[in-house]
Amino acid sequence: MMKARIVALFFFAAPFCAVAEEPVQPIDLNLSSVTAVTITGEASSIALTTTEDEPYQATLGGVRSGWFAKWYSSWFYTDCRTSSRMRIENTTLHVDAGSVSWLEPSDCKVEFKANVRKGTSISIEQAASQVSLAGDFSMVSLDNKAADVTLNGYAESIELRGDAIRSHLTYRQTRNSETIEITGRALDTYLGFVSGTQISYKVDAVAAMVDSSLPNTTDAKPSVTIKGQYVRATIR
């Protein structure tokens, strides 16, 4: 009798599980006129590109991540709803990354993706961010408590501030005018440049481990300034 009750319970519950597999519909905006992006709020995963042969658009929504994510949606109804908002004002896209829906587990996160025009400036001020930048940007400014930042491409200027920052910045070109400033308590950074690039750099820290294969050339640009209590820096 007990076995029969268990089977029956599973049978009647099964149709409701399928509903949770419906994807969350993200907010979607056209960014053809945008030249600056500002991102604020709690925490989010950010991916920005400057691909010219793809539409200039952005999506913002709650997504589930982690090893348990693919099975969770089949068992529970909740769908990572988020209070995040974004709007375009003049030529600036404003993004506010709010929290995910109530009673959601930690594998829900806010995800913002956008393809913007080359030369767009980026400003991020959040509690925590995971940032991926691929393309050509003018200015990248970040002021967070914690951040993991990746750049693959180019930025005229980069300023990263926070308590704990891990960054992996790879320049595919330089124009002898770039400035890079990274400031925080605990920093782990990698800087990669095209072979033969001349740079100047300064590291100011209580404890630092610096591994550079490039000579420090006075007044050269890109110029790199790294300040923190605990610093590990690799320059190639």
Give a short summary of the structure:
The chain has 236 residues and is mainly beta. The chain has helices spanning 2-17, 69-75; strands at 27-30, 36-49, 57-64, 85-89, 92-97, 108-115, 120-143, 146-171, 179-192, 200-212, 223-235. Strands 1, 2, 3, 4, 5, 6, 7, 8, 9, 10 and 11 form an 11-stranded mixed beta sheet that branches.
List keywords for this structure.
single chain; mainly beta; 236 residues; 57% strand; 10% helix; 11-stranded mixed beta sheet; disordered N terminus
Instruction: Please tell me what the overall shape is.
Output: globular
Mean pLDDT reading: 83
Number of strands: 11
Name the beta content range: over 45%
Order of helices and strands: HEEEHEEEEEEEE
What does the main sheet amount to? Answer: 11 strands, mixed
Ends distance: 70 Å
Total number of helices:
2
Q: Helical proportion?
A: under 10%
Rg (C-alpha, Å): 22 Å
- Derived structural class: mainly beta
Unreliable segments (pLDDT under 50, ≥5 consecutive)? 1-26, 67-78, 101-105
Describe this structure in words.
The chain is mainly beta. Helices cover 10% and strands 57% of the residues. Strands 1, 2, 3, 4, 5, 6, 7, 8, 9, 10 and 11 form an eleven-stranded mixed β-sheet that branches. The N and C termini lie far apart (70 Å). Mean pLDDT is 83; it is low at 1-26, 67-78 and 101-105.
Describe the protein's topology:
Layout: H1 2-17, E1 27-30, E2 36-49, E3 57-64, H2 69-75, E4 85-89, E5 92-97, E6 108-115, E7 120-143, E8 146-171, E9 179-192, E10 200-212, E11 223-235
Parallel strand pairs: 2-5, 2-6, 2-7, 7-8, 8-9, 9-11, 10-11
Antiparallel strand pairs: 1-3, 3-6, 4-5
